[in-house]
Write a structure and sequence with these properties.
Number of helices: 32
Helix content: 40-55%
Largest sheet: 7 strands, parallel
Distance between the termini: 55 Å
Number of strands: 24
Shape: globular
Strand order of the largest sheet: 5-8-4-9-10-3-11
Strand content: 5-15%
Structural class: alpha/beta
Length: about 800
């Protein structure tokens, strides 16, 4: 707490002295920086990096010292809205002015300090981080522009500050390491100099694109991330979650595997051989791009976890810092599955698994955070979860890549957690090929500037990096050559309607069948055709139009091998551990077909069959609604060369496919976004791309969320939702919704916006009540879309 005798009487928040907030934010930001490797951003001396972070933190709310802001802070509720709308109340720009000039003076006073090409740029990084600490980034050239009316407002703000109080605040900040006395006259001089100084900055910023360097972008995001994470953390928890001592190793996985008593089969022996090969591989800590490329079903989750734990221990021993393990997956459907397996490993070794040890993070995550015996309030829990305060984070590609490529405050807040981390990209083939070049360049710089380790885990490794750039942990040729579980039969001589396909099927007694179709419409229609054909046999249907609660129940049933027939869309392809004797797959890119093959005879009993067909409606192929025409053309031309493909041939064929993809697919989108990164054009107001235009999942198919009151639990959740909507205070309403969010979204489906039978809107959400359930929702195939083709 602040010494009352030296208190400025400025406040940052009700009841919180301004100097206390600024000094605490600086402490938290620096403590987070200390957890990072000591040699990140090698062109900048570590001492200078700390100094810029400290200056940014100590200055970030100085603009709250104005009489305008102090009046707003303690005004009555009815007056606050009007005061908040006044430009004079805004504290960001004045705080940024202070950060810019303090940083500039620091550099000018220390000519000997090493900062590479960043000398003229670092003060602007501090300016930008502070200016936007409550907002999203735009084009940096625009961010470095002030108009005459901005200067007028700034001068009015400066003139409103009480000199005596500012003198006390400045003395406290100097004691905390600011290195600059700030008075009203000093602030006024800085404001008057600002247009000329920013003019110099703008000229330098316009030259950024010619440098073709990602480093300024990474540095900006890093400092911004440290500031905003510390700021939000200080206001909520007020502290850093202490790290564990890091005494993990791969033996945790060894013990878990031993306790499993796996049956002695040929497949399990291959799994164990692959595991031992990875674990026994000598570690070279200078090699940061790593590959585990194994056939499906060979235990990649446990193997990659064991490797990451081994690498973590080695880094701690050799480099003295504890890297976080960030385990990334493309789909929500497999996050729960993988997180559950990691939790089992930890529990089997006697760990009490709380959120500080293992964290699941995606947009539907439960807002719950626990460290030992302390369970945090939802507000605090949300900040800790979104800031990746954990040793092992299991998350989505979307969360990772938007932490890397975004203009959004909420996305960039966790960026600093990437420093020194071990990033596992499981099912890495899911990254669209038009982003390969972009992803390559970003990941490469991440390993060099932030000392990250990147591990690709897949059965179908794309050519994001050349094979010579990646360090393989296994002899992938050996394992693919041993595989004889499955044969693939391309049947592409004729494009078939769903009716023709259903009639052509030869169903054998005693075998299980999985049908993977490309669109929701085709899957629903085929499900009904197959039901006519097989009569009372039990059959499961899966698509995104079935509520997640029911999808998980059905996947669990499929895992238990209690299902003879299943009709699904692609929701089962990557990583879902299900096993069928025969898989039919509508034509798709070759890596998707290979993933489908991973759901066939996974545990090697006899010989499975994967049959690839080409299905059409009255207008076109179903595949053409979903997939890129070039990828489909490459796939078709490769598959048509074969009558039967043995599993041992999969590796060669997928390599041929990726080489052709690399040759034929355009990298224009990657190049446009890289140009935006080089010149830090976070958002664009013209025809050129901005970083905000990066979309890992293209949403050119407008959809709408609908709540389905499927059962008694859903009824109770909807009642709670209505109760939350009655809360007048916005922040309290958000807090209460966060408590039910994870359960609420178990009963949500996304439907086409143009469907004829849109359910009514109730309390701001489309809602299908239990009393009208049959009008909108089929118990087998999910939401009943009318008047529109449902794609996915």
């Amino acid at each position: 707490m602040v010494n009352e005798s030296s208190f400025s009487e400025f406040y940052s928040h009700p009841g919180k002295p301004l100097e206390e907030h600024l000094i605490n934010v600086a402490y938290l930001a620096e403590k987070n920086l200390k957890q990072c490797p000591s040699d990140i951003f090698k062109e900048i001396e570590r001492d200078l990096l700390f100094k810029i972070v400290r200056i940014s933190a100590l200055c970030h709310d100085i603009g709250k010292a104005t009489t305008y802001f102090q009046t707003y802070l303690f005004a009555s509720e009815e007056k606050r809205a009007k005061l908040k709308a006044m430009k004079e109340t805004n504290h960001g720009l004045l705080s940024a002015v202070a950060a810019f000039f303090v940083a500039k003076n620091e550099l000018e006073n220390r000519k000997d300090i090493k900062c590479g090409d960043y000398a003229a740029y670092l003060p602007f990084v501090a300016f930008l981080a502070v200016k936007k600490h409550h907002g999203d980034f735009e084009d940096v050239v625009d961010e470095a522009t002030v108009e005459e009316k901005d200067i007028e407002v700034l001068l009015k703000q400066v003139d409103s500050i009480e000199e005596r109080k500012l003198e006390i605040l400045s003395a406290r900040l100097e004691e905390a390491g600011l290195g600059q006395k700030i008075t009203v006259d000093v602030l006024r001089g800085w404001v008057q100099s600002l247009p000329n100084e920013l003019g110099v900055v703008r000229r330098k910023l316009r030259r950024l694109e010619r440098q073709q360097s990602i480093n300024p972008y990474l540095l900006t995001n890093f400092i911004f991330s440290l500031l905003i994470d510390a700021d939000k953390g200080e206001v909520t928890t007020g502290r850093i979650i202490e790290r564990t001592d890091g005494k993990f190793d791969y033996y945790l996985v060894d013990r878990y595997k031993s306790a499993m008593n796996a049956e002695d089969t040929y497949l399990n022996r291959l799994r164990e051989k692959a595991y031992q090969e990875v674990i026994e591989k000598d570690l070279n800590l200078s090699s940061r791009l790593i590959s585990i490329n194994l056939p499906t079903g060979l235990g990649k989750t446990l193997t990659s976890l064991a490797f990451a734990l081994k690498l973590r221990k080695e880094i701690l021993s050799e480099k003295g810092y504890i890297p976080r393990i960030i385990y990334c997956l493309p789909f929500l459907s497999i996050i729960e599955q993988n997180a559950e397996q990691i939790e089992k490993v930890l529990r089997a070794n006697g760990f009490e698994v709380d959120t500080s040890l293992l964290l699941k993070h995606h947009h539907l995550s439960e807002v719950y955070y626990k460290k030992e015996e302390t369970e945090f309030e939802p507000d605090h829990a949300k900040i800790l979860i979104e800031g990746w305060n954990s040793e092992i984070i299991v998350t989505t590609f979307v969360q990772l890549f938007y932490a890397l490529l975004s203009n959004k405050n909420k996305d960039l807040r966790k960026f600093h957690r990437l420093a020194g981390s071990i990033i596992i990209l499981d099912e890495v083939q899911s990254i669209p090929s038009n982003y390969w070049l972009l992803v390559r360049e970003i990941l490469k710089e991440l390993t060099e500037q932030l000392n990250c380790y990147v591990v690709f885990v897949t059965a179908t490794e794309p050519l994001i990096f050349s094979r010579s750039e990646m360090i393989p942990l296994v002899d992938r040729n050996f394992y693919f050559e041993k595989m004889e579980r499955v044969i693939v039969k391309p049947r592409l001589e004729k494009d078939m309607t769903l009716e023709e396909f259903a009639e052509s099927l030869d169903i054998e007694d005693g075998k299980s069948y999985l049908f993977i179709l490309n669109t929701i419409n085709s899957a629903k229609n085929f499900y009904n055709l197959l039901k006519e054909r097989i009569g009372n046999e039990e059959m499961i249907y899966l698509s995104a139009h079935v509520v997640p609660y029911e999808r998980l129940c059905r996947i669990k049933k499929m895992k238990e091998r209690n299902v003879k027939f299943a009709v699904t869309t692609q929701v089962v392809e990557a990583g879902v551990d299900i096993d069928f004797d025969v898989v039919y797959r509508d034509l798709a890119p070759l890596d998707s077909i290979n993933q489908a093959a991973g759901r066939c005879n996974r545990n090697w009993s006899g010989k499975g069959e994967v049959i690839v067909v080409s299905l059409k409606d009255e207008r076109r192929l179903y595949s053409s609604y979903i997939y890129d025409s070039v990828l489909l053309d490459i796939t078709r031309s490769i598959l048509e060369r074969y009558r039967v493909i043995e599993e041992k041939e999969f590796l060669k064929i997928i390599e041929d496919y990726y080489r052709e993809v690399q040759e034929r697919k355009s990298s224009d989108k990657s190049r446009e976004l890289l140009e935006a990164v080089y010149k830090m054009k976070y958002d664009s107001t013209d025809e050129t791309a901005g970083i905000a235009d990066f979309k890992l999942i293209e949403e050119d198919y407008p959809r709408l969320d609908v709540f389905i009151e499927l059962n008694e639990e859903a009824k109770e959740i909807w009642k709670n939702y209505l109760r939350v909507k009655e809360i007048k205070n916005l922040l309290e309403r958000r807090r209460e919704f966060d408590k039910i969010k994870a359960d609420f979204y178990k009963y949500i489906v996304s439907i086409p916006l143009k469907t004829d039978n849109l359910p009514p809107e109730v309390a701001g959400f489309r809602y299908v009540g239990n009393n009208v359930l049959r009008e909108y929702y089929d118990e087998n195939t999910g939401f009943i879309c009318k008047g529109v083709v449902a794609l996915w």
